[in-house]
Design brief:
With 429 residues, the chain is α/β, with parallel strands linked by helices. It has two domains: 281 residues, 3-Layer(aba) Sandwich (UDP-N-acetylmuramoyl-L-alanine:D-glutamate ligase), CATH 3.40.1190; 134 residues, Alpha-Beta Complex (Protein-Tyrosine Phosphatase, Chain A), CATH 3.90.190. The termini are close together.
Length: 429
Amino acid sequence: MAHSKKLQFILNKLYELNPDKIELKLDRVLRLANDLGDPHKKLKNVITVTGTNGKGGTAFYLKEILQAHGYAVSLFQSPFLYNFLTRFLINGKPLDEEKFINFVIEVDKANNNQDITFFEYITCIAFKVFAEAKSDFNIMETGLGGKYDSTNVDYQDLKAQVLTPISMDHKDFLGDTLKEITHNKCGIIKNNTNVIIAKQSNEVLRFIDEELKRKKIKRYIFSEDFNVNEENNRMIFQDDDGLIDLDMPTMKGSFQIQNAAVAIKTLKSIGLKLDNKKISDGIKNTEIEGRIQHITNGKLLSYIHEETNTLILDGGHNEQAGKSLAEYLEKIKGKRSIYLVFSMLTSKDLKAYLSNFSSLITEIKCFKLRENFYETKYIIKQAKELGIHANSNSSATEAIAQLAIQDPNAIIVVCGSLYSVGKVLEQNI
């Protein structure tokens, strides 16, 4: 178990906090932060990261490059896989359990049973935790939005804001069109800050321009103000200052060099003097579980033929994430067959995600993780319409074991949900 019984009991209580109706405003988080003494205003060198894809990777590259240069860094990350306390990272280490419980007691007292959502509550905990830590830099990753995200508060020392690639996701909260979603994401951007814009579609760039043209900001746009290429297994970063020759990221996927480039430009934009060797060290040190992660040790290896099977875990859950995963699998496939072990929340666009794999994979083994996940019958039906053979299993590990017996040379990919990937990873400990 990742959590003690005491911690799990407290978390279960926190999960019950959500009011029946999510309100698209910041009144509650600002009220609670104020009652706590506005700890967010005490944070030094704040960098916010928002977007649809690449938030976690970009935030971790920022953290690791800064730490390689000797800075103390606090990072609030939105998703977690199996250890809730990793949401609050201080110099790469999760918040101590007893400290977390003490912060809960303090925040609970300040809230005084008033309406608050789970994410608003834990964001205020992050403010308190990081204010106490007094780190040199504080990186705040948004939850799912921008304008009404709980992290969108009036930081007194906001240094830079990052917009990672924006695409369709969370339509139930952010809007039904790409323009509406972009508008929401851009709502976090404040005046008098540096805005670093990752690679975007031309359509999204146009929407971003519409949203930001009235703001007093300094913007840096990928492919216009900075760029990155892979040459001879090296990462070549380029901006107006010239070229930087760097080691390739440890993390898999061609998009990782873009995430790393955005992180580098962000830190350069605020005037930091960066050492090329330390940048490389930071990039190589950046690893996030559940992001095109190859399983090379742990209990999961007992389910497969360790020498011949390849087991990959990826928690991406929207169309663009599916595209990135498919591109990576195509690159490594060779003559081997690829199988997906798949589960997905009903709030996600299942068919848009799976459409990336129709000509690439041999079979889908699907399972239903819990109540708010798609029924396996529905997944099988949608897969059939895309020309993909699919059948059901009771669990991810059962599917992995069956596929390893069925094809000892197979590439087996657990994907579609951070929750299901986290559940599998928990079994690898």
